[in-house]
Amino acid sequence: MGRPLRIEYPGAHYHVTTRGNERKDVFKSQRDREKFLSYLKSAVIRYDAVIHAYCLLSNHYHILMETPSGNLSQIMQHINGAYTNYFNTKRKRSGHLFQGRFKAILIEADEYATELTRYIHLNPVRAGMVKRPEEHPWSSYRDYVGERIAPEWLKTGFVLGYFGKKTSDAGGKYQKFVEDLLDKEYDSPLNATVAATMLGCAEFIQEITAQYLDGKQMDRDLPALRTLSNRPSMDTIVQTVKSIVGEQVRLAEKTSIYLCHKYTGAKVKEIGERFGIGQSSVTQVSRRFALQMDTDGTLKKLVEQLVGEIGVSNV
Question: Taking the mean position of all CA atoms in its chain, how far away is CA 83?
Fold first, then answer.
């Protein structure tokens, strides 16, 4: 497996997750969870990390993090390394605790911070651990909705600021925002991630690529870099699909929506406007098309041909 592409700069925001090795539990007791949170606190103090939201499950965790000093790798080495040492010492074991490298998605915070905190806080509900997010004590949700006083190292103000100037009012509106998705099927905002690396509008992807990746040596172990270096426009995709699919209008439209969603880095809203459909329809069409490819060899070969024509890497 190729190395993940790390884009680090001062002020960057990330959705970070790490799973237990072989998907085994990494949190087995209350003390384990408390200890992990203590390492989040020390990362804030020692390495200037800003923790906006978190959720600890049994075999993995989610964090929404900001790095004012542009030192994500240093922060994560501290958190995962210190916790692994604690866990191994306590249980008289050795070796890796977490599964490979941590996964970090660089995000456009103004566009996705609220959606991602909702996704993070609803994780225990989706996993069937609880019926409501406030029933899970090992996330930052209770801090957001005023059910407990947030620790100093947890910064809820950035996200709550989108819901109102007064913390009490903002907390109530945020709670409604989260509860709007209870008992509903919904797509993860992470499904719009580009090249397993960035989540943002087309302009954000282009700006970050130009500022931090252009001119970087191509590396066969960094497939995401190859993908990001050549982002096709929606018009290019639509014209290419039309030239190959021909008169099969419905197939051409679904194929174009899928490819635009996967490769352009455009917002779902922008894709929907381009094809005259709603945002939820874009994600539904894209997801169903991907599932159809899994069972339809002819369709899969067509997409592979189109990917080659468009000139992007199918990662």
Answer: 23
